Amino acid sequence: MGGGPEVPSKKEKELVLAVLPWPKEQCLAGIDALQKEFDHLEVQHYYSHFENGKVTVDDIPKDVPAKSSYIATLFWLPKDAAHIPKTKLIQFFSAGTNHVAKHPIYTDSNIPLCSANGVHGPQIAEWVVMMDLVHSHNYTKLYDLQKEKTWNQRAGMNVSDRVGKRVGILGYGSIGRQVARVAKALGQDVIAYTASPRKTPESKRDNGYIVPGTGDPDGSIPSAWYSGTSKGDLHNFLKQEIDLLVVGVPLTKYTTHLLSTDEFELLHKSNPRGTYIANIARGQIIDQKALIIALETKQIRGAALDVTDPEPLPKDDPLWEAPNVLITPHVSGSSDAYAERAFQVLAENIRRERNGGKLVNEVNRDRGY
């Protein structure tokens, strides 16, 4: 009937479903970079509002999850894997996935799950060092005096600088490695603890996502490495006269209440100066009741906690009133660069998924991280 050749239909783009706790304008840099590199992808963004432990998500059309090849999320997941039959990869924008460990997609599917481990190092390391310095320089007392308009030099004279002090990093991942980098710059000694032994140069390397110019890529900073999964292994590490203990291990069955009465007593015996503890991992890793007792009896010098058990911490919880404790509401990972960095992890995983390579930060479901 004439009319010339048929125009080939334009191939439908693959969908990236992004359900994230930032408005779209805060994610545009990451979204634009992703769509520019992969012209076969289209990103649809939905805002998951998060406040004080509660999550609400903008309405997602029912057909969108089923069309998604990739999902970028922090809290949200569809009901089960049957709702996302095309999904090749779920990229969490969080360091851990323990918050979804009982979800059917975690327990009953084989969809690769990846964390954003690596994007938090700079800002969380700054939080750890800031809290340690605030404590060692008596800043909270000085700030209270400022609000009272009181000039009292004596209140700020008892300072312990950081040079020569020992930082013990419990869980030498990307966050711990950046803490180590900053601590080393301050003249501190760093020792590391990992579940598995790191006896060779290759085993000490960081093969995950690294923010350029940060961290300890080749694992050369620690003066000593400790490892193991038994209480004896842990106690051998805690005996090393640690001044600042940084808790950076993932939450698993093994690490729940990893630090309790025995561990606080051991820290006290091993370091007459007193150990300061910074927890940026999960609240349940520390036995909170035992921590309060350790603070009250001065078994430890103090604690900086960005995570608690539970969250939000109830107003009547005795932890609020414990001596020498600084508490922030799980915000140490916040940064204006967070979303952009996490999209970079997603982009790397899409590259590797397309090329059949090993994914970055893929979660081992049996291990829990």
TrEMBL record:
A family per Pfam: 2-Hacid_dh_C
PROSITE patterns: D_2_HYDROXYACID_DH_1
UniProt entry keywords in alphabetical sequence: NAD, Oxidoreductase
InterPro entries: D-isomer_DH_CS1 (IPR029752), D-isomer_DH_NAD-bd (IPR006140), NAD(P)-bd_dom_sf (IPR036291)
GO molecular function: NAD binding; oxidoreductase activity
SUPFAM superfamilies: Formate/glycerate dehydrogenase catalytic domain-like, NAD(P)-binding Rossmann-fold domains
Domain D-isomer specific 2-hydroxyacid dehydrogenase NAD-binding: 131-203, 233-332
Protein name: D-isomer specific 2-hydroxyacid dehydrogenase NAD-binding domain-containing protein
Lineage: Eukaryota, Fungi, Dikarya, Ascomycota, Pezizomycotina
